[in-house]
Write a structure and sequence with these properties.
12 strands; 60s Ribosomal Protein L30, Chain: A; 273 residues; Alpha/beta_knot_MTases (chains A, B); Alpha/beta knot; 20% strand; rRNA_Methyltransferase (chains A, B); elongated; alpha/beta; RNA binding (chains A, B); homodimer; transferase (chains A, B)
């Protein structure tokens, strides 16, 4: 297969345009974002309509010939670039020779919060990219129907978020830019209970739900708050109940990703019993 | 209370000696390590015999007067340092004016793997400091009896590990520098089953243990492998069974910290039922 021409100048207009997507403002304006590295690019290419343009070094194109052929068959733009040019598009040293420009994937809240939704994960003011990405990945693993990031959360197309999802961003529907009250109201209207992960005085014990009248087999929207200050009183008010992961030892708390994993998997287990 | 004299020179011998502990080699040679920031220092001071020396800025000493008084009552060395001097000892910008020199905390394997041990967490070749610290924190939260890091794992006194434990390093007994076979043999001799967290063909489903003859209520040593390549075939051989966190969606896997959280909490729940 004939390879496309090689872009060797970082001043190339296509490179300059793509590099702008490293900034949130430009991602927002264009509705596009960058994906780095073979694993993530493979997942992006597998999701139809996602990849717009592919930049790949000659070496990476030889190592992953399917990337170039998939791009060509899908009528995506595909450019061979020098390693130096690729660094203009990569936020890490882990791009391993390939970066894709993708269309934003987020969907409407009403399309995921429907009568079928069993398990939905809501991030309220989660700011750390690694946490957000980890939770998207685990929501995908636990078979959740969608992840919702409220408007004050981290940008889901931030390169660190994308990387931490390990491809799950292309598997599970994601909703962004909505207020928490909008989410909790629609969830309730669609028959889901809204549980806040929060260790306050009135919180149910995740491991002893029945004793306190909590039904973890029910359809559920889980809400997780900020990594530093947790859920605000105002946000807690919007939820039906709060639930705490029990602390059996001396730790003060769990980190957000771990706590979310225990909660979401406990719902997934109960819902399948 | 009269404050100690102020060290204002980064060339001070005590500062130079303490700064050496930023290197693994010197930590190993001295059996000491550094702890940064008010939260971690508070936990270190609460564990008797742990803190050897305290370096604190005047501002931090005013904000946390108990640090200086605890150090004095405990006959620890305590020095007021200028913010510039403190940066020589701090690996991050988050020291918030206080760094403590602590004695290594690790204990003998035989002292934790005894007839009473219910739940022990073993890290086999875990290399990422953040993962190791997160798992120590969650083992503490789940009420585990100890954490064991095999000899090829990350140094538990690495500053990133210490920080990620969020104080739990001072709560839960930690064993380092032992071979995995030594751990699994002693665990078995003490009556614990040895479970490897690994998604291979013969793995039990964590959510359906009984169907495949797995008893999660039994006393257990959980073994977690490397973040990138998982458990080696050789290490798997040393365990009694392998157990996989079920993947209900499309993610290929969970990250190590999240998977460990789900496994450890599932044991803690079953053991308390």
């Amino acid at each position: 297969m004939k390879l496309p021409d090689v872009i060797s100048s970082p001043q190339s207009k296509r490179i300059k345009n793509a590099a702008k997507l490293l900034k949130r403002r430009d991602r927002k304006a264009t509705g596009q974002f960058l994906v780095e590295g073979p694993q993530a690019v493979r997942e992006a290419l597998a999701r139809k309509g996602s990849v717009v343009e592919l930049f790949i070094t000659e070496e990476a194109a030889e190592e992953h010939p399917s990337f170039v052929s998939t791009a060509k068959h899908g009528r995506m733009q595909c450019s061979i670039v020098t390693p130096e040019v690729l660094t203009e598009l990569a936020s890490t040293v882990n791009s391993q020779g390939v970066v894709a420009v993708c269309n934003a994937l987020d969907v409407e809240l009403t399309s995921v919060l429907d009568k079928e939704a069993q398990l939905v994960v809501v991030l309220a003011q989660v700011r750390d990219p690694g946490n957000a990405g980890t939770i998207i990945r685990l929501a995908d693993a636990a078979g959740a129907d969608a992840v919702v990031l409220t408007s004050s959360s981290v940008d889901v197309y931030n390169d660190k978020v994308v990387r931490s999802t390990a491809g799950s961003l292309f598997h599970i529907p994601v909703v962004t830019g909505v207020g928490l009250s909008e989410v909790t109201e629609l969830a309730r209207a669609r028959g889901l209970q809204v549980l806040a992960a929060d260790a306050n005085d009135e919180a149910h014990d995740l491991h002893h739900p029945w004793e306190t009248g909590l039904d973890l087999t029910a359809r559920t929207a889980w809400v997780f708050g900020n990594e530093a200050w947790g859920m605000s009183a105002e946000d807690l008010e919007l939820c039906d109940s709060s639930v705490a992961v029990p602390i059996y030892g001396s730790a003060e708390s769990l980190n957000l990703g771990t706590a979310a994993g225990v909660c979401i998997y406990e719902s997934a287990r109960n819902q399948r019993m």
